[in-house]
Design brief:
- By secondary structure, the protein is an all-alpha fold.
- It has eight helices and no strands.
- It has helices at residues 2-14, 22-30, 33-47, 53-59, 68-80, 93-145, 148-165, 172-179.
- It is flat.
- The mean pLDDT is 79.
């Protein structure tokens, strides 16, 4: 009963979605980039609380006959579905700032490379001491982990786990490899 109520509510809520009408789609596809740019600016003016009437009177002759409602809907659709790309003009402060950021990144990469080289040089100098230390302290652990008796128990445990939980794997080839 609960699922049926959820299903009815879901169907009821989805009927309130407002699809874009065909006339809006056809009008949007017939506009060129300059017209879409004007509609985007119009929507930005409206969103920020300005009166766009003077702006629209200035650019009205660029469009075919549009009613205010269709114009506003087109502007909202262009505004909602636009991705703004900004290219900085040459010799501007923004372009100088972007080049400074690029230089800063390259300096950071250079410093990271120098640090990696220094670490490699330290390893090269003290490599024998490090290997001897690891062998001396980790040899008993490796002898215990790779003893024949413990390896037998580890393989037995892994095989039991693969037999019981191998059937829950969804991938057919992987399940076959695990179960074999």
């Amino acid at each position: 009963m609960k699922k049926i109520i959820y299903f009815i509510l879901l169907l009821g809520f989805c009927t309130y979605g407002k699809p874009v009408s065909d006339s809006i789609n056809s009008n949007l596809s017939s506009l060129n980039d300059e017209q879409k740019s004007v509609l985007y600016e119009l929507a930005v003016l409206k969103k920020n609380g300005f009166n766009p009437d003077q702006f629209w009177l200035k650019h009205k002759n660029e469009f075919p006959k549009l009613g205010d409602k269709v114009r506003d809907e087109l502007a909202l659709q262009v505004y909602a579905n636009s991705k703004v790309l900004y290219t900085a003009p040459k010799n501007s402060t923004i372009q100088f700032w972007m080049q400074t950021q690029l230089l800063t990144n390259w300096m950071f990469y250079l410093s990271a490379f120098i640090a990696i080289c220094a670490i490699i040089a330290l390893f090269k100098k003290y490599w024998n001491l490090l290997i001897n230390f690891l062998i001396k302290h980790l040899a008993p652990l490796f002898r215990f982990l790779f003893s024949p008796v413990l390896l037998t128990y580890e393989l037995l445990l892994i095989s039991v786990i693969c037999i019981f939980y191998g059937c829950t794997v969804e991938e057919f080839v992987l399940r076959t490899v695990i179960s074999i």
